[in-house]
Amino acid sequence: MNWRLTKFGIKLILLLILIGGLVAGGYWYKQNYWDKNNDPQEEVVYSEIAQVAFIEEAYQLIADNYWQAMSEEQLSDIFMQSLSRIYGSQPELKEKNKAGLAQRIESLVANGPETDHSQMLAQVVDIVLQNLQPFGRSRLYTQQDETALKNTVSNVDPEADLLANLGVDESSTDQEVEEAFEQKIQQIDQTTATLAQKEELIAQTERAYKAVGEQVNRERYAETKVEPTMYGDSLSDSIYYVKIGKFSPTTVEDLVNILASMPKNNQGQALVLDLRNNVGGAIDGLPYFLGPFIGKGQYAYQFFSQGETEDFKTVTDRVEQINSFKQIVVLIDGGAQSSAEVMAAVLKKYHVGVLVGFTTKGWGTVERVFPLENQLSEDMTHSIFLVHSLTLNEVGEPIEGEGVTPDIDVTVKGWQQELLGYFNNQELVSEVEILLSQK
């Protein structure tokens, strides 16, 4: 009897202990996990940590990757100047380095709980980046900015439908596309639109035709919306013309298509390579793109970053179709920039043709998008668009601010005779003169 009562008592005690443990455990969970993750004050603490980490990462990324070597003091001073613009005048840092800056950010955030620090700190970093030389080239990017850049580099216009513009589709033949183009031009001519409106409509129609006029480009556009970056045409029976509008990941593919349409034997023929108003773009493909012009394994161009140079060699073979042109003119102007200037400098260095026109823009920077691991909030995704290198010209000097000078400056009276002296080809000189007179 006593034993049974004792056993029952033990069970009762164990049950009470179990219930008590569950209650205590629930209370501990609520205090240490549930309440913390649902406490607005805890969210504020988390955001403070994230905001400081965001500034620290941006600071370190610039220090490691910006083309110009900077001391801790220089970089922290730029950050403090930016902080003063956004938050008001700031006292000097005790430690002019990343740690000192982080302490200041932590203090600013902690002492202003009602302030939208995420927005303000994004502005701080953007101002810092804009004030790095060359001014305005580096920026803080949103996800939208990054998407727009990718589309630009890829030569994709998500708002346009060039097949619909002409009223054709992927299955249309080249002849059907050409007929649709001519019909569209006639329709524009017959409208009551102003001359300026007609010119704009014609330009849009011509763009569409250049993009989808050939089957290989039409099929690619239908699948990817990528427009060709270059096109070729015959100016006469003995002069071939190639226009390169920009550089994108598909420019090498475009060159292959152009070569396929070129005459197989170009002996005695001339080539006009037009780089005017080329806005540059993807420079990574240049070692592949330049090979057909200067051969494989050639030192093509250099980058300069933080006191050191980096050499880039060509990785593709010379193409006989290009090499067989004995007379090559390369047109450049103030609208040619970035990768186009690098290409012009390389062609000048290896004496591939004669550069004719005006000094190029002098936009000799290489930018890259660097992702950030630490974000200011869950609904804000930023990355850093940063100038990480300068490009060098044919004699190893920065292109930035200087540009690439032509062999023949068309602002100098008598340039036609100078070009004639190079090639003794009056027809070529006349065609170049016509091209230069066109917008």
Describe this structure in words.
With 439 residues, the protein is α/β, with parallel strands linked by helices. The chain has three domains: 40-130, no CATH class; 156-227, DnaJ domain (Helix Hairpins), CATH 1.10.287; 229-437, 2-enoyl-CoA Hydratase, Chain A, domain 1, CATH 3.90.226. Helix content is 51%, strand content 15%. It has 16 helices and eleven strands. Helix 2 (40-65) packs antiparallel against helix 4 (98-110) and helix 2 runs parallel beside helix 5.
Sequence-ordered SSE layout with sheet pairings:
Elements lengths: L1 H37 L1 H26 L6 H16 L10 H13 L6 H14 L8 E4 H12 L7 H5 L7 H17 L4 H18 L2 H10 L5 E7 L2 E6 L6 H11 L8 E5 L11 H9 L4 E7 L2 E6 L6 H4 L3 E6 L6 H11 L4 E4 L7 E7 L10 E10 L16 E2 L5 H9 L2 H12 L2
Parallel strand pairs: 3-4, 4-7, 7-8, 8-11
Antiparallel strand pairs: 1-10, 2-3, 5-6, 5-10, 9-10
Helix pairs in contact: 2-4, 2-5, 3-5, 8-9, 12-14, 15-16
